[in-house]
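Hi D.,

Good news: the full-assembly prediction came through. Inputs first.
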Amino acid sequence: MAAAVLKRLALTVVVLGALWGLWESYRALWVWTGWTWPFVVDDLTMPHMHEIVSRLWQPAARGGPPLIRPLLSNAAFTAKEAVVGFALGAVIGFAIGVVLHHSQLLRRGFLPYVVASQTVPILAIAPMVVIWLGGKGLPVWVPVSVIAAYLTFFPVTINTLRGLDSADPRRLELMRSYAASRWRVLRSLKFPSALPYVFAALKVSATASVVGAIIGELPSSIADGLGGAILNFNQYYSLDPSALWATNLVAAALGLVFFGVIVLVERLVVRAAPEHVA
Amino acid sequence: MTGTEHAPAAVSIAGVSKVFERGGTHALEGIDLDVEPGEFVSFIGPSGCGKSTLLRIVGDLIQPTAGSVLVGGKSAHQARLDRDYGMVFQEAVLYDWRTVAKNIALPLELLGWDRRRRQQRVQEMLDLVELTGFDRHHPWQLSGGMQMRVAIARALSFDPKLLLMDEPFGALDEMTRERLNLELLRIWDAAGSTVLFVTHSISEAVFLSTRVVVMSPRPGRVAGVVPIDLPRARTADTREEPRFFELVTEVRELLRGRAGLDEAGAVSEEVA
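Then the structure:
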């Protein structure tokens, strides 16, 4: 057990080291040869990795706390929006999947619009959501959660549908021989059959909800989240490029945490044959 | 219900025909058969003779094109709604995410048995199929023969009036198969239910049954019925008795003879 954890840890270190090496050798090669394609490489376009990481421990502003402190509180704020959005999107997505599974008519009628909803760019929807839900006495971050939910529900709907359809016909026949009710078939057969599919979608949605939350913050002019920080450091990029890169690192880490939580929950919930856990 | 001195037949099949709309396959033609309560009736025939189709019609999983099926005096549909059927398929069809105990308890949950009663019955069933102590295992941790025993335990757990078995041992090796044959007979004796059993093994059919129904291929018809007059208590030695061989030969002759005699000149290629 301890050996397995150690092995896993060593692997992570090796992979991170390799990525670090790739970044730095690309940088060194381009600087040394003076190549300008696809872009000029210098301290502004590609700061040293150690500068990006160490930037986290330098003051955010002159005389202020280290950058990581405000970034972590930004991340916590964005995480709250993303969690609420993810939960909302997952529940709604699952419900739509279950309803569409039970009605061929609804499936044929509505599925194209569900798909179409995802081809509308999130940036075009976000301002309207903010206007619709703004000034209703709701906390300012609620529209952001709704935008995150909008990105979350789609994979869940599609995979729920696929998962419910995947129930083994022989197992369905067995249920039929017991004259099982529709609800019983759903509960005892179709939900468990769909779980691996649903979790595959939840993994995609978990990271999408973080992206949705960050993007949703921009038109809402919310400054407390990672979106606000990105917007802010974007303006000072020519002076302090490492700050924006450091913010991106934190955003990526948040996405990873979300993904990891879903994997953990999957391990606990899906107790089927080992090969069923993807 | 009938009010006569006779209880209604366990299964009464009258004039059942089946033509599958898709592809127009004529699977069954004019099947008539009565099965008395407590009988063990095997259906044997070449592949494509519609024996599995017939079993599914009796189980109300598919509808006949013509004819009717009564189960204990009720329509097959009503019998299914009354949970009169215990079904065992060619494969065990267990639910991977459930433990052995929970697989066996599945029909009991549907019937609304409370937890204590379920647990008690599961233990009895595990003892019956000699899987005591495997209750917490998952299906994928068991061998094929053990999985099949779980499927049988599940089918018997709620005391169904009629056990429908569709080539349950077809995928198993010969030794496991013969052992499970003996176990099935012991279980059948203990449970006292009626069994309809589909197989393509002549010796299995003769060994298990009180009657063997021999079917001819497409469209499936009853080519003959062979009563098995072996003593009811059967052992591994039964397979060595002269009478056993005589009956096996009789079934084989029926299977073979029918192919040449098919009406309408439709000589079947399947029985070689």
